[in-house]
Amino acid sequence: TTLSLSEENQRRVHTWNLQRRKNALICCGVSLGAFIVTLILVFCLKKGNVLDENCPDHNPSLSSWNPGHQPDKAVVVKRGHLFRLERSATFLSLPIQSG
């Protein structure tokens, strides 16, 4: 009976050790997964431009505008149109017309 109790105790200890290893691996896996998700979120959020409502360039109602370099041409803009100049431009005049 002493031999069978010893074998039974060894099996219990072995099973308990296996369960501890399994739990440790699960814990490490969950921690690593959470770390990777955190890194992804941090780098994805850092890449994007931070939009500031007070900055005129970030106003979503502005249309991109690139009239180019035409020193002899007048560029006409209608009142109420909102443009964001994307690149440098050269033109003769910039009249703003109503209507």
UniProtKB/TrEMBL annotation:
Which InterPro entries does this one have? CEMIP/CEMIP2
- Whether Transmembrane helix counts among this entry's keywords is yes
- Keywords carried by this UniProt record: Membrane, Transmembrane, Transmembrane helix
Q: Report which superkingdom the organism of origin falls in.
A: Eukaryota
The keyword Transit peptide is annotated on this UniProt entry: no
| TM regions (residue ranges) | 23-45
Q: Tell me which PANTHER family the record gives.
A: CELL SURFACE HYALURONIDASE, TRANSMEMBRANE PROTEIN 2-RELATED
Q: What is this protein called?
A: Transmembrane protein 2
Q: What organism is recorded for this protein?
A: Nothobranchius rachovii
